[in-house]
Each structure stands twice: as structure tokens, then as C-alpha cells.
Give the backbone structure.
Amino acid sequence: MKIIVVIGSLNNKWFLMHIKYPLLLILLVFINKSMAQEEFAKINNVYENRIITPDEVLPLVDETQNRFALIFLRGKVIDGYLFDESNEIIAELNFQDKARAFKQVLGQTILKNQDFVVYLTTKNRRKFASSHFSFEKNIVEFNEIDLDLGYEEIIQTAEYNNKFHVLTILPNTAIINIYRFNNQTDFTKHSIDFSHHSFLNKKQKVKDLYDMMTINTGLYGLDKSVDIVKIEKENPTTLEIACNSTKIYQNENFITITFDSNNDITQIVDIDLEKLIGYATSFQKAMGNWSYKEKTSNSFVDKDILYQIVSTKRAFHLRALNFRTGELINEYSAHENEKIKFKNSSIIQTGGTFDNHRTFEDTGVLLRKMSRGKVGIAVQNHDNLKQISYGGVIERSSNAMAMMPGFGIPIATFGAVTVFFNPTFFAYQSYTATKAIQVDALFNSNFEHQNGQLKENRFDLIEAFEVEHNISPNGRTVFKMNNAYILGNYDAYHKTYTLRSFQ
């Protein structure tokens, strides 16, 4: 019997192995997974009754002090555990919360005494509050916030200089409001008007910024909801997320929003949280001589570099430029009848119904499959190289896809742990529901293709571990702690919550 499987080698390089003997396969997988993860921390006797499980678990991370807390939500009961730099529990709290109407978590700040403040909102995001988790006093202080957004829609939240920010868009305008919180309840409001810039939608019609950020939702499409994906630069970004036409990034004090529904241009809104000012710019895409209707395109931002992809059924083009200076860095193209020279992997299709992993070398296959869905490009930084994935995602009808951005339902509609609060978990959730065709390649900072081995994706390791060990979804979370990804889950039978680290 012949089995084809993707596994990680002992020197952290991914390769395709054809193994004839299942016993050898099991041995290699076991060795690899054992080296890939280790138990990070454990909480024993979380609940007295094995029937009880947590609804959700919030990770609160303080990397400056190398400590973190886990907040267990179960109905109106809150249990908290504070871990020190040695991953040992140093404090606990238990509280009966009478204000669980505020079920969505927007973000957090860290107080000087290492207590945590979590900002909350109601499901319709019209009322706001903060919860101060004090492990020293074993209390949770709840405070409603006198913030009335009216008809404003929340775009995203951001943390800068240990201050919590809420960004909103005013309906039918190009005005973005920034609410900066100075403490648990007090805030200041700042407005930035982008009406001086013209925005073009997919149909080449001029629209205001509000229309560019929203989609029609609700009964008969009469409501508007923000449809923007947050990209966390340190997380692996799947093509399923990267293929969304509107994305938001944070790089230190800069918030950058990109719009790619128009196949001729990438439109950018850049906001400086330090100076509280904003800019709007547009950059032409390649293949301008091709018919507009023949093309599909997208982009990705890594710090101040804009990476663009444009594709047709016969050719595609990659380009990198500095969107703050306008400098073109480098570009590549390939046609249907030629081999792609700027790649370090085969053309890989994943997520098929009958064959979950297929490889190709034919550029024409890649182009035809990309033309059937949405194209995207994503960047990950590894040492001095950039590992860039490009390809496409085919839309399909499933529960997992229905919850994803860009497919008709806003991103922040499920659970307390939304993409506002824990984008790492959101990115991992999308990673496990991807049907994509992609190519991976290595480039240096000048966007020059480099030979070398691709780095393994730690989301691959986590997913493989969950499948192999049948990890329970109870209280499941994934979060980033320093340079590791942490998987947490609750085992009701043993009444333990286990955290595992994937380096």
C-alpha cells in the first residue's frame, strides 16, 4: 500500500514523502509532532463537575513582563488564572458577572500592576464597557463607558502605546473617527476626513469611503456591515484571508487599509496614530493593457511595501513597491505556456472534496483555477527572507466558509473572541477551512527571488496535532506568546485545561 502525506522533517523542512509502509509513516509523524510541541502549562480541577465545560477562554498576554492570564467564561461565571514567567499559576479569581450582555471582546490594555482591562461591547456594538481583572484583589470591576456611536460602524480596534483605540466610519461619508482611551472609561475623539480623495469601486464608479468598507447585509440587504479583514503581521496568513478585497494592517503607529475591488488600482488609506493624521493614495496595477473584465487582482502590505498580484487566464504579474515613497522595487510575470521561475514549491491545491492535496507544474492550470475564484498574495517574514504565497481561493458553500470575511457575512459575528480581540485564533480558524491553489516562493528585501527551503508553517503543526490527538473543541484557543504559538483546550473527563507550545 502506498500513502502520500506531507510531514515535517527533523530539520524543520517540509517535503512530500511517498511511504509504502504505514508503520514507518506513523513513527515519523509521531517523532515530528513530539519535537514540534511541548506542554506549556496546565490547570487541574478547573470545574468540579465533568459535565461543565467553558463557553470560551480569553487569553490576556503581557509580553513585556513575560506573563499571561486565561479568563474562562461560563454563563455568568468568570474564572481567571494568572501565570508568571515560568508558566506557573501565581493568582486566581472567581466572579459572578451580572453584566454578560456585553458579550463581545474588543481589546485589552495592561495596567502598571499587571492587572488587565478588557474592553467589551454588546452584540449590536452600541453599548460599551470595561472589565478590570484584578488578580491581587480577586475581583472584577465592571464599568460602563459613556460612548454613543449613533450610526457609526466599528472598522477595527487597535492598541498603540498601551492605549486602546476604536476606529469607526461615519455612514455615507469619508470620515473616520478614532476614539482613544486614556484609562478604563475616559476617551478622546479625533476625526479624519478623506473626502478630498476619490474612491473607485469594482464597477469603476466613484464611491465614498463608507461604501468601500461595507457590504449589504440584513433582510433584503437593507443593512450595512463593515467587511474588512485584519491582518496580523506575525501570524501566517492564509490565501483565504488574503483574497479578501479589503484588508487592514497595523505596523507600530500606522493603520493601513487597502482596497482591491478595483482591478486597475490599489487604493490605500494610511492613518498615523501618533500624529492622528491620515493620507489616501492610489497605485496602478500591472497588465494595464489587458481588458478590465479579463483581470482579477489583489494586494498585501508588509510594513511599507505593497505587494500586488494581477492575473488573467493567460498570464499573471507580481509587483512590489514602497507605497509611502512610490518607488518600484521589482516585478515578475509568467505566461500560461512557460514555467514559473520565481517559485520554491510546486503548484499545490488543497481542500478538495476527494483529493485534499494535489501538485502541478503547469502554469496554465494555476491560471485557470485562479480565474474561477479570488486571487491573493500573502507575505511571511522568516529571518532575512520573505516567504510569499500567491494563488487563489475557490468559493464553496459550507459552514466554515459562511463565517469567513468576503463571502457575505461580516467577520465579527460569532463568539466573544472576535477578530478584534484575538486575530491569531481567527487566522488559525480560517487556515483549517481553506480550499486554495497556491505557490510559495522566497524573496529578499529587494524582491529578488532566492533559492532555498521553505519554512514550515506552525499552523500546519497545530492542525496536525489536533487531528492526530482528537483535541476537544471545548474552550479551544490559539494565541501568540513571544515567539511561540500556544494551543489551549479543555479535557472535561480529566477536568484539566492544557496549554501546548509550538515553536
Remarks:
- Confidence is low (pLDDT under 50) at residues 1-31, 397-417.
